[in-house]
Write a structure and sequence with these properties.
- By secondary structure, the chain is α+β, with helices and mostly antiparallel strands.
- The chain has 3 domains: 56 residues, Roll (Structural Genomics Hypothetical 15.5 Kd Protein In mrcA-pckA Intergenic Region, Chain A), CATH 3.10.290; 95 residues, Pseudouridine synthase (2-Layer Sandwich), CATH 3.30.2350; 141 residues, Pseudouridine synthase (2-Layer Sandwich), CATH 3.30.2350.
- The chain contains 5 helices and 16 strands.
- The strands form 3 sheets. Strands 7, 8, 9, 10, 11, 12, 13, 14, 15 and 16 form a 10-stranded mixed β-sheet that branches.
- The longest helix has 12 residues.
- The radius of gyration is 20 Å and the shape is globular.
Amino acid sequence: MLLTADREERLDRFLARMMPEHSRSRLVKVIESGGVQVEGLARKASFRVEPGQLVQVGEVLPEAAHDLAPADIPLKVVYEDDVLLVVDKPRGIAVHPAIGHRQATLVNALLARSHALSEMGGSFRPGIVHRLDKDTTGLIMIAKNDGAHRSLQNQIQLRLASRRYLAVAWGDVAPDIFTIQSGIGRDPADRRRMKVIQSGKTATTHVHVISHHGDRSLLALALDTGRTHQIRVHLAWMGHPVKGDPIYANGEWSKGPLQLHAGHLSFLHPDSKERLTFFADPPPDFEFREPGAEALDRW
């Protein structure tokens, strides 16, 4: 991977900002092993890059994660055939293993099923085409082979696949229809958080207000991109954090179940090219059960 420095800062901090999918400690190990070069020369983590300098990053191997033992976790399968399945993910289950997370994940549950999973996402993400946060509920695509995985991933990138969400947000959100576009990157002060920053990766969220309820609004949201915590970051940045968000909301508004649900999913079948569309109503602890997930189809 070739990166261009956009400001003066330590090499390890620059890489952590530009490659938020990797921990800083992992990137430091790559630097120390000689896997990072600045203008053709290996440098230490403390080396200060300058604007315009070219930084070549070699392969960043995944950190040792948790075991991938199959787990007998019931899954709500909305659709399944020979090449893919669609699962309605419950609250509280992470999609795949990660450092610091010891509980069984959706991947562990998938491994207990009697079918293959794609390998394109890496050894600790078999079958996973896209992600949902641990406490976000709703629909997620799973690929059984690399061909299906490649097709579904390309559809997301080309915006041929549609992902829409319901959220309960703080305040009287206005106007009724608008788009949020910004850069999103890792917050240098807290690696748990993402942040709207000019140097981050472009993120676009389309917002449609469904209804107002006193101090809160029910929103429908559609994504053009899939950055980590994108909806949560964008709404908080606009002053309308999602209810129950312990990272981006404050006070009483941060408590309770996260009110974010992936209720609509539509894509072209990798083999038949037929458009498949699915809806999943929000869970019982979602504040507004009506009009339900099918409201997302009317947008």
